[in-house]
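Homework help board

Subject: predicted structure for assignment chain

Our instructor gave us this sequence and asked us to write out the predicted structure in token form, then describe one feature. I got the tokens but I'm not sure how to describe them. Can anyone check?
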Amino acid sequence: MNDAVLGIVSMSLKQYLRQNNDFDCKSMNLLVPFSLRELPEGLGDHRIENDFSILCFTLQLHSVFNEAITQIANQTRALKNSLYPHATLHLTQIIAWFPGIVG
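My token output:
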């Protein structure tokens, strides 16, 4: 679902930029929410919590939906299997606590 939304955003941004005479832009950097929760195995395993991080995501701009979906799915799969989302979450938490420590 998220890959499809990003695919639509990719195509929409490319079309918007072309309509405004920007033919050079090939990608755009976005901040996107990233869920750190594991999928529940059953209804009883579902937890409601704010377990997410914000990631910097470079969105390649596409004209063709199938190309956009394939490229974005590969990119998000690599993110899901990396340390980047967890490292970003913990770094953000440390930065948030720092002013209280320095005081």
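Reply (TA_rk): Your tokens look well-formed. For the description, you could write something like this. The two ends are 43 Å apart (CA to CA). That's the kind of observation they're looking for.
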